[in-house]
Amino acid sequence: MPEGHRIYAFGDLHGRDDLAQRLRAAIIADMVNEPAAEVTVIGLGDLIDRGPGSHAVIASMVAGFPGAATIGLRGNHEQMLLDFLEDPQRHGQQWFRNGAPETLRSYGVQTGGRERPPPEELARIRDAFARAIPPAELMFLQRMPFSHTAGDYFFAHAGARPGVALAEQEPTDLLWIRAGRADSDAPAEKVVVHGHTPIEQPFLGKFRINIDTGAYFTNRLSCLVLSNADRRLLAV
Questions:
Q1: What CATH number labels 5-78+140-235?
Q2: Were 122 and a residue from 55, 84, 88, 164 both cysteine, which residue would form a disulfide, CB within 3.0 to 4.6 Å?
Q3: Distance, CA of 64 to chain centre
Q4: Band of pLDDT at residue 153, cut at 50, 70 and 90
């Protein structure tokens, strides 16, 4: 990392606002104990779905971290939400299979308890959700970048396709790819930091770092701290 610049990057929260609050406290305490001239906090996507607190997690990211720039990268779950708002009949079933009801309920939108709502019900739910989500949070979701580069590191939700230049990665791969899991450390132009594929312990390779420790299921959220040439982890 550039001199004086520190990055905190955390994996897939999936609506666990309780862990988000603990992470915020841990990062703030770490910044107090070891000050840095410039700090950036990066969420690696999949902030939402499955857990009960997606609304609170997004609101927290919109508010940002005191004394730090805050970046929320787009994950496949945020993309499913945006696709649902654009075309609920086409994309609704996929999102509902992957945690939509919990996210919608966190915004006070009732889903009728159906696992697969019919098309007319999906349209009603979409309209209710569009009214319920605060404009600042919708704008945050819409403006989520697919990747971020800093120093010798490239950050993306799912990782990057091996053998393809980082500047030429397809958005679909950055959101969904599972090829080259954390046990693969294929050479790349920069160190690729990602989540998306849950593993028991963070993988810190030479070219690839995976910090998705399955927070929703395991109650363990991992946060990577990068300063100069150092790497360390905050466990929440």
A1: 3.60.21.10
A2: 88
A3: 14
A4: very high
